[in-house]
Amino acid sequence: MAGSSHGHTPAAWTGVIIAFIGFCVAGAFMVMAQPVGFWAGMAIVVLGGVLGAVMRAMGLGQPKQTHAVRHAAPAATREPASVEG
């Protein structure tokens, strides 16, 4: 995946960061035995996903591929590499 820009967009970063903050909030309130705070943190997690989807719809996400992706042949069917020495 190093050759692609999968996930390297403002929409992805924003959605993941907000969801991570919500996860931390929910986890802290779970340890403190405060159900209202836990559910508030879970709402922040959902908000991160929604905001990421909205930003992607606004054009800040990964563009959709319009062409078919070529898959490499399995290693057994490839020709061996020649070694010159």
Describe it.
Helix content is 56%, strand content 0%. By secondary structure, it is mainly α. It has a domain at 10-59. The chain is elongated, with a radius of gyration of 21 Å.
List keywords for this structure.
85 residues, mainly alpha, 2 helices, 56% helix
Low-confidence spans: none
Count all strands and give the number. 0
The outline comes out as: elongated
Q: What portion of residues belong to β-strands?
A: under 5%
Continuous helix count: 2
Please give the share of residues in helix. 55-70%
Mean pLDDT, to the nearest integer, reads 82
Distance between the termini: 32 Å
Q: In angstroms, what is the radius of gyration?
A: 21 Å
Structural class: mainly alpha
Tell me the series of helices and strands, N- to C-terminal. HH
**Main beta sheet:** none
List the helices and strands and how they pair.
Layout: H1 10-31, H2 35-60
Summarize it:
The chain has 85 residues and is mainly alpha-helical.
